[in-house]
């Protein structure tokens, strides 16, 4: 089966191959549902609408059939970008989908002239830290008590950087 045929079939199959695509404003409700399910302080639909309407934000969705199962957003300024959020639906984790989502997004950033990408991640989030390390990010700093979990415990953030040039 050719790549084009497989891609076309995946559009109509609820369990087709995952596709990374540019996101748009209509994705805001799905992004908000995912974010609220995954993070201590989930962003609401209005926050995602503002981000997706912002010309300095680059966003991609990860679609499985007709269902959005992940996303990534970055804010760009000059030749730098900061990854704001990466999310993969809980039932889709462990399948390597985030790796392709991040790599595709980084490729788009590089194509837009971005030379350096930063992100913050909870210090105790081993899977995310491993994902970013595999994607070429290196630890460049730490922010004490940057996050707060549901019980009010303050958590440290690790600042990571990757050069794209």
Question: Could you please describe the fold and organization of this structure?
Answer:
It is a single chain. By secondary structure, this protein is α+β, with helices and mostly antiparallel strands. The chain is built from five helices and seven strands. Helix content is 33%, strand content 37%. A seven-stranded mixed β-sheet has the order 1-2-3-4-5-7-6, sandwiched between helices. The termini are far apart.
Summarize the amount of helix as a percent range: 25-40%
Rg from Cα: 16 Å
Mean pLDDT: 87
Strand share of the residues?
35-45%
**Overall number of strands:** 7
Largest sheet: 7 strands, mixed
Overall outline: globular
Low-confidence stretches: 1-15
Structure described in brief:
This protein has 165 residues and is of the alpha+beta class.
Helix-strand blueprint:
Elements: H1 3-12, E1 18-22, H2 28-38, H3 45-53, E2 57-64, E3 67-77, E4 80-88, H4 97-111, E5 116-122, H5 126-134, E6 138-148, E7 154-163
Parallel strand pairs: 4-5
Antiparallel strand pairs: 1-2, 2-3, 3-4, 5-7, 6-7
Helix pairs in contact: 2-3
Properties at a glance:
alpha+beta; 7 strands; disordered N terminus; 37% strand; 165 residues; seven-stranded mixed beta sheet; 5 helices
């Amino acid at each position: 089966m050719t790549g084009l045929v497989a891609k076309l079939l995946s559009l109509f199959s609820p369990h087709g191959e995952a596709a990374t695509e540019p996101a748009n404003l209509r994705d805001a409700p799905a992004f908000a549902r995912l974010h609220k399910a995954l993070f201590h302080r989930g962003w609401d639909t209005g926050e995602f609408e503002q981000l997706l309407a912002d010309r300095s934000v680059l966003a991609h969705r990860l679609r499985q059939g007709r269902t959005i199962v992940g996303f990534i957003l970055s804010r760009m300024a000059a030749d730098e970008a900061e990854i704001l959020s990466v999310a993969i639906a809980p039932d889709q984790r462990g399948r390597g989908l985030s790796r392709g989502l991040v790599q595709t997004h980084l490729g788009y950033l590089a194509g837009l002239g971005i030379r350096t990408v930063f992100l913050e991640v909870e210090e105790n989030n081993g899977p995310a830290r491993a994902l970013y390390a595999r994607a070429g990010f290196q630890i460049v700093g730490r922010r004490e008590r940057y996050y707060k979990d549901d019980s009010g415990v303050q958590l440290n953030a690790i600042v990571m950087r990757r050069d794209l040039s």
